[in-house]
Amino acid sequence: MCTGRVDLRFILRALANGNDGVFVGGCWLGECHYITEGNYDALSLMHLAKKILEYLGLNPDRLRIEWLSASEGVRFAEVMNDFSAQIKSIGRLGEAEGLDHMELCRRLDQATQLVPYIKIAKRAKLAMRLSKEEEYLSLFSTEEVEQMFDEAPSYYIDPEKCYACMICRNRCPVQCISGDRSRIHVIDQEACIRCGTCLKVCPPRFGAVQKLIGEPAPPPLPEERRLLRKGKGEKSEEPAA
Hints:
Elements (H helix, E strand, L loop, with lengths): L7 H9 L5 E5 L11 H19 L6 E5 L5 H18 L10 H13 L1 H7 L1 H4 L15 H9 L2 E5 L9 H5 L5 E2 L7 E2 L9 H5 L7 E5 L14 E2 L4 E2 L6
Parallel strand pairs: 1-2
Antiparallel strand pairs: 3-6, 4-5, 7-8
């Protein structure tokens, strides 16, 4: 598999599954077998991933990327032995950083849920082709990643303003908005990629979609309260107890 296909989710999933480190080996820069030059994508992604691990309180040296060709068997063995020794010296994931298993899983899950947003927010830098490999070391800063997490938005449809016009539901690129013309729309927060499309397309006369920064979205409206009165655009009353 080309290193260009390595996704941030793969790295976080490997760690969440109990692996103490992640190694990515690819073709030497400038020797890609495809016109995509995917190893440059992998290089920028790995440096971003290291900064994300640092933000999560994990040792960034748990990630490593190296360039290897098919004819370099001896070098491959040396690199893997060195990486294995490095991971052993760092210690078990979480334990070495002073995190219990539940807190480790919580932090990794937090980052995993934000992967689509991260790729949207940093797509310009992730696509950059720098002239020297050393320049990638400073491509992402610690402060930049902290800001990215702190300012990660959530989108919420205010049930008092939603008139079930279906526009946001139909335009959502990942189809994470449920509802029909008789039901108030609700965003699936776990599936949402935080692209902001719903906010952009919501008619100004409704203004139902809200952008939240630094706070989670309120819980969705109970299913029995999502019905609209047919033809009136009025919310149904709560069923009698």
